[in-house]
Design goal:
The complex is a heterodimer of chains A (203) and B (226).
Chain A lengths: L2 H13 L1 H7 L8 H9 L3 H23 L2 H17 L10 H19 L19 H18 L4 H12 L4 H8 L3 H20 L1
Chain B lengths: L2 H9 L8 H22 L1 H15 L1 E3 L20 E3 L2 E9 L2 E4 L4 E2 L4 E8 L5 E8 L5 E5 L12 E3 L6 E2 L3 E3 L6 E10 L5 H10 L4 H4 L3 E10 L3
Parallel strand pairs in B: 1-11, 5-13
Antiparallel strand pairs in B: 2-3, 3-4, 3-6, 6-10, 7-8, 7-9, 7-12, 12-13
Classes of the chains: A mainly alpha (203), B alpha+beta (226).
Chain lengths: 203, 226
């Protein structure tokens, strides 16, 4: 390759964000919007990086919201498929996580609406084991099972707010955008949800 | 139980059935299958599929903060799908995985509203969309207006030559039952929510008087939920 050509390619790569992503910046450091822009032009590696980055939170959210590991994983897979299908329409405004969890929330809500009302399925969900004492771990696991069992029985608005805040780990402003309610309303729902949760657990 | 313990328990990750690699592989496989199906059906089908899924997936609720109520006789004028000055706007109902024309439609709770547009002016334009319910209360669709302390402005429409659907599908927050009017205002400069509401409250015989700098369209439908 001639020196001139190398120089031209280097400058092109340095000035066009898409090329810069692949030529210089490690993919782990590329922000979500840039990865979506790459996915929109068909770069599956960029899309795979996005899935790897967010799958654990989305899957945890879907599992907790649906109350089932298998249903939750299927829902999470649908969420990422929908994300892929709408990648061209996505407008990069630095709100990728809000967009992603809007998809996840709607998928879970549709699933909850669609199934017959019945007992919560959360009893089947073990938590991630840790390296601590097995007895402590058992006690902790039982406590978490109870917590999530009670969460599953909370009114939808409070449950929704708690899952988005703590399981999806979103900021109040992001949740407000997703739910379409003022931030103060979301804070109040989280507060009421936690209060009710404490009361139920104390029984 | 302490607050800290409770929050830790809420944050605890459940055991996931499939490993990261397996999950990512499954997602990419489903994307690949979807792409293959879309390619077989041709471009129009692929667009329809994408829009349909978008309709089911991206619904957002809006909240009506400080909704102004309009004078009885206020009216906007326009048609269901008009092309003027190179900007074409069409409002749609997102329902059951499909996008349907809103004009004369009967809407109920769970229905979302979105916009399909073409802006072939070669320049940015700005769009505001709101609905006026039977009680003459205003509900904002675009821009999102969720906090009275803010004053968001109409959203940008980038130049485009192919019809494009906005990603956010908005569900009106319990409008009064009865006739529902959907109004869009397209302008060269952004309009703020409060400026629009102020003009609406001032009242005028027609929308063209209220927004002389913009292009106004109106669609009429019916809200049937209680």
């Amino acid at each position: 390759m001639s020196g001139v050509l190398k120089h031209v390619l280097f400058n092109v790569a340095a000035t066009i964000p898409l090329l810069r992503v692949w030529s210089a910046q490690p993919i782990g450091e590329v922000d979500d919007d840039a990865l979506m822009a790459d996915a929109a032009v068909g770069k599956t590696e960029a899309y795979a990086a996005l899935v790897r980055r967010h799958h654990a939170t989305v899957r945890a959210y879907c599992v907790r919201a649906s109350g089932s590991q298998s249903v939750g994983d299927d829902l999470a897979q649908d969420v990422f498929l929908t994300l892929w299908q709408t990648r061209v329409q996505y407008e990069s405004r630095g709100r990728f996580r809000s967009y992603l969890f809007t998809l996840a929330r709607n998928a879970c809500r549709n699933q909850i609406r669609g199934r017959a009302r019945g007992p919560a399925l959360l009893a089947e969900l073990p938590d991630v084991p840790t390296d601590t004492d097995p007895l402590d771990e058992m006690v902790r696991s039982e406590r978490r099972r109870r917590v999530h069992d009670v969460v599953a029985r909370l009114p939808w608005a409070q449950r929704d707010a708690l899952l988005l805040r703590y399981t999806a780990d979103l900021e109040y402003a992001e949740i407000a955008r997703i739910v379409g309610k003022p931030e103060a309303t979301i804070r109040s729902r989280v507060f009421l949800g936690l209060s009710r949760l404490r009361r139920q657990l104390a029984k | 139980m302490t607050h800290r313990n409770l929050v830790q328990d809420l944050r605890a990750r459940p055991v996931l059935l499939a490993s990261e690699d397996t999950f990512v592989a499954r997602v990419l496989e489903s994307c690949k299958r979807d792409h293959a199906i879309g390619a077989a059906h041709g471009r129009a089908s692929r667009r329809t599929l994408a829009l349909t899924l978008l309709a089911s997936a991206a619904a957002l609720a809006i909240v009506g903060v400080g909704r102004p109520r309009l004078r009885e006789h206020w009216t906007a004028r326009g048609s269901s799908h008009r092309e003027t000055r190179g900007v074409s706007i069409q409002t749609l109902v997102a329902r059951d995985h499909a996008l349907l024309p809103i004009d004369q439609a009967s809407l109920h709770a769970g229905d979302g509203i979105t916009v399909r547009f073409v802006n072939d002016t070669g320049e940015r334009r700005y769009l505001a969309v709101f609905v006026v319910d039977a009680a003459r209360a205003v509900h904002w669709i675009y821009p999102a207006y969720v906090d009275e302390a803010t004053n968001p402005t109409s959203i940008e429409l980038e130049p485009n030559s192919e019809p494009r659907v906005l990603a956010e599908i908005v569900e009106p927050d319990r409008p009064a039952s009865g006739p529902l009017r959907v109004v869009s205002v397209t302008s060269r400069e952004p309009l703020s929510v409060k400026a629009v509401e102020s003009r609406l409250l001032d009242g005028a015989a027609s929308a063209s008087d209220l927004f002389p700098e913009g292009q106004v369209q109106e669609w009429r439908c019916l809200w049937t939920s209680p």
